[in-house]
Amino acid sequence: MLADDPLGAARETPDDLAPYHAAFAAIAADPQQHLVVAERDGRTVGTLQLTVIPGLSRRGASRALVEAVRVHADERGDGLGSELIRWAIAQSRRLDCVLLQLTSDASRTDAHRFYAHLGFTASHIGFKLAL
Fold it and tell me: Do the bridges between strand 62-71 and strand 97-102 make them parallel or antiparallel, or are there none, so unpaired?
């Protein structure tokens, strides 16, 4: 699923599994990481990674960050993405986070509408630096 879109196809290498296994091990070992994998009929159909970030702002409050939201092409449009995000919202509240944030590539206008429909606001401008 990571390589199953125009952006991911240019940056993912699904034939080399070693980096993905190492990343999964690091995520599994970190109690601030929460990885959700949705399965249907024994196959992976969706993912979401939730990271809890302790902070100094907002009176020392924690915030949650959503990453790696993926829904298999065959499963899109059936509500799985909304279910994953609603889980992230509920889990963030349970973990006493005061804010749930995410980034979305500027070219993904459909995703922007999707997140807005779920209550997210485009409140900030994000910047990234490839290293």
Answer: parallel
Q: Token digits for 57?
A: 């702002």
Model pTM score: 0.86
Distance from C-alpha of 62 to C-alpha of 95, rounded to nearest angstrom: 9
In the numeric block, the tokens 């889990």 are attached to 91
CA distances 97 to 26, 52, 66, 101, Å, are 22, 8, 12, 10
21-49 pLDDT, tens digit per residue, is: 999 999 999 999 999 999 999 999 999 99
Ranges of H-type helices in the chain = 6-11, 18-29, 57-60, 80-94, 109-117
Question: Phi and psi for 8 in degrees, rounded to 5?
Answer: -65, -35
Return left, alpha or beta for 42; rule: phi > 0 is left, psi -120 to 50 is alpha, else beta.
left
Contacts of residue 32, defined as CB under 8 A and 6 or more positions apart, other chains included, come to 51, 52, 53
| Edge-to-edge strand ranges of the sheet holding 33-40 | 33-40, 43-53, 62-71, 97-102
